[in-house]
Amino acid sequence: MKIAELKASVAREVDTHREQLNELSLRIHANPELGFQETKAASWLTEYLAGHGFSIEAGICGLPTAFRAGYGVGKPIVAILAEYDALPQLGHACGHNLIAASAVGAGLACKPVIDQLGGSILIIGTPAEEVYGGKVVMAERGAFGDVDIAMMVHPGTHDTAATWALACQTLEVEFLGRAAHAAAHPEAGINALEAMVQSFNALNSLRQHIRDSARIHGIITDGGEAPNVVPAHSAGTFIVRAPDDDYLDELKQRVIDCFTGSATATGAHLEYRWGDIRYATLRRNLTLA
Questions:
Q1: Tally of CA atoms within 13 A in the half-sphere of 234 that contains its CB
Q2: What is the CATH number of the domain that holds 186?
Q3: Which domain covers residue 87, as residue numbers?
Q4: Which terminal residue of the chain has fewer beta carbons within 10 Å of its beta carbon, N or C?
Q5: pTM attached to this predicted model
């Protein structure tokens, strides 16, 4: 079969599943599940793949909602990655339902090619990508050890064959102060919220002096209990991103310096913890793209 005929058969396969894929995407969107809790999405995706000739390995890498669906035999092994977790409070604001349905559709569309040319196509379900980093855990546990090519799609504002992703790591920060009545005895208190606010100001100043491609962003998750009480505790979650691993290490220390300075200025005690999961920069293959 000629390449043009193979491409036409791929397009026909997509059209055959178009309505079902759209329904699958909308169903996942209507039932958002947080990272490592995507039981419905993982079940729906694997059921559809199994019903169309894919072998299923559920719960791979010790992760109940991760999966590996395969079709074909031998090399090359091409993996298409599926994400399907949602954001807390926001649902599928990043379109992971579209990523999942697109991965399934691409895998099904590859079946005629596999039948003609050999090799294997995998759909690998990668849970907890919004705020945790399931792919890192899966890579460490060997999920991609036999894979020759891995690819995925992500919704965006324009079409592109290749993109780039920053190295990143999350940071959990707490300030411990001392409560006091904010009107009667404010001098007796140590304001943990003020320490967090000052940290944001320091980070804003830092942004002027870092590379344009680096990013520092975060939210306050605890700012006190009542407006007439000096907050004895504050907490925040941050993400630090950099264009390469070495610069991420440098930037991490400069970020911690901002929090340390705020602790010194306010008298609050600083506690912090870097996330266990760290993403390296994306290694692209522009020839394949």
A1: 29
A2: 3.30.70.360
A3: 3-151
A4: C
A5: 0.86
